[in-house]
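Example 9 (inverse folding). The structure is encoded as follows.
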């Protein structure tokens, strides 16, 4: 009965960890075999009989009877006199099966058994958690803020699973308090050692896509398809949508009357400005829509190199570029084209890249970040506005202005 009593005491883990009894018994057998190897050097001659219905486990050691004084391996062989103490009619050469009691393993071994069992069950538990969350990658998940760290927020779900929301996966305006519920997508799940690491993201384009599925019935039902999502988290996003049903206006259905349907999504994303755009296979039309709210005069496409030259009236240029260059950059990501903006009526302009002998590359890149790639596009800007929008000193910008003006005066 002592084996049964010990197994029953181990069975508490079954209830705590939701492990079925058969799995628990399999883990137990593995743990006991490890204990036998440590004590006897090997376990090949041991039979472990598990009865999951009764919660019982028996260990039997099989040895060969040899003459007294001829025992060379005490684990594999037993002397005749010792065998006859078990049963008086044993003879040399016969096999003896003897039950091993847990007390025979020793107190330390039993303590080690318990520790090993805990470790194996945690390993099994972690494997199940890994599989569970691996299937949830890309899906929206809710969890509660448990601990706030400098580089990440630690979340716990209803089952007590730990989920990490790193700082760089948070929207810049995010601010969470302990106990608050947080939504995001499960971005990745990895096993580090035996412990699963679950990463949540609120900045992934997939989070916005899944919010559309949750909040807009036509998207959830498949009547509207999201073709592509691009984002600058917390600032601006563009979502291309399509419908195979001509009776449905995909943009209108997603936005709703006065933005009523998309409002909850915008609020969830820290007032991220979301442009919903009708998808089309017509590249010129798609680029025109992607650069909204700017109104385009004409477009010249280089399909082979995926470049587009867009002509706009001067007052439309800033709209096309957008604050911080977000609009033109996202339009390029959405359409797959590198978009160059030119002002209508301006016949002569020079790419900033032509001035690398006089202007340092890093300075040119600062202008490019906000969508200014040509000499005249820079010269049309206000000095103070450029100081605010770039990381350049006022004196540096003045020097650039002078270099560019000299070009056109020659």
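The amino acid assigned to each position is listed next.
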């Amino acid at each position: 009965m002592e084996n049964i009593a010990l197994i029953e005491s181990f069975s508490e883990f079954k209830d705590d960890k939701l492990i079925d009894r058969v799995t628990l018994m399999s883990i137990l057998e593995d743990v006991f075999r490890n204990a036998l190897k440590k004590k006897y050097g090997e376990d090949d001659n041991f039979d472990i009989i598990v009865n999951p219905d009764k919660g019982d486990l028996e260990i039997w050691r099989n040895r060969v009877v040899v003459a007294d004084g001829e025992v060379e391996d005490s684990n594999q062989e037993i002397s005749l006199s010792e065998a006859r103490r078990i049963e008086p009619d044993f003879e040399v050469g016969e096999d003896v099966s003897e039950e091993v009691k847990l007390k025979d393993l020793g107190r330390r071994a039993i303590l080690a058994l318990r520790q090993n069992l805990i470790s194996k069950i945690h390993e099994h538990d972690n494997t199940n958690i890994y599989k569970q969350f691996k299937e949830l990658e890309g899906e929206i998940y809710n969890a509660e803020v448990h601990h706030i760290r400098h580089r990440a927020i630690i979340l716990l779900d209803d089952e007590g699973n730990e989920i990490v929301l790193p700082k760089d996966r948070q929207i810049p305006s995010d601010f969470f308090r302990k106990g608050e519920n947080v939504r995001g997508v499960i971005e990745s799940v990895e096993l580090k050692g035996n412990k699963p690491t679950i990463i949540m993201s609120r900045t992934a384009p997939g989070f916005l896509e899944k919010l559309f599925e949750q909040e807009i019935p036509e998207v959830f039902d498949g009547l509207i398809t999201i073709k592509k999502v691009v984002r600058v988290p917390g600032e601006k996003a563009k979502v291309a949508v399509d419908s195979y049903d001509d009776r449905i206006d995909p943009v209108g259905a997603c936005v709703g009357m006065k933005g009523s349907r998309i409002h909850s999504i915008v609020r969830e994303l820290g007032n991220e400005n979301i442009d919903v755009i009708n998808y089309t296979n017509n590249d010129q039309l798609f680029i025109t829509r992607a650069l909204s709210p700017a109104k385009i005069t004409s477009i010249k496409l280089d399909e082979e190199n995926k470049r587009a030259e867009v002509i706009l009236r001067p007052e439309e240029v800033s709209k096309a570029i957008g604050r911080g260059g977000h609009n033109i950059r996202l339009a390029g990501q959405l359409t797959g084209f590198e978009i160059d903006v030119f002002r209508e009526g301006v016949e002569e302009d020079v790419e900033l890249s032509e001035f690398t002998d006089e202007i340092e590359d890093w300075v040119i890149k600062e202008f490019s970040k906000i969508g200014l790639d040509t000499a005249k596009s820079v010269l049309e800007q206000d000095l103070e506005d450029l100081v605010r929008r770039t990381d350049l000193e006022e004196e540096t910008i003045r020097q650039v202005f002078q270099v560019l003006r000299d070009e056109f005066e020659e």
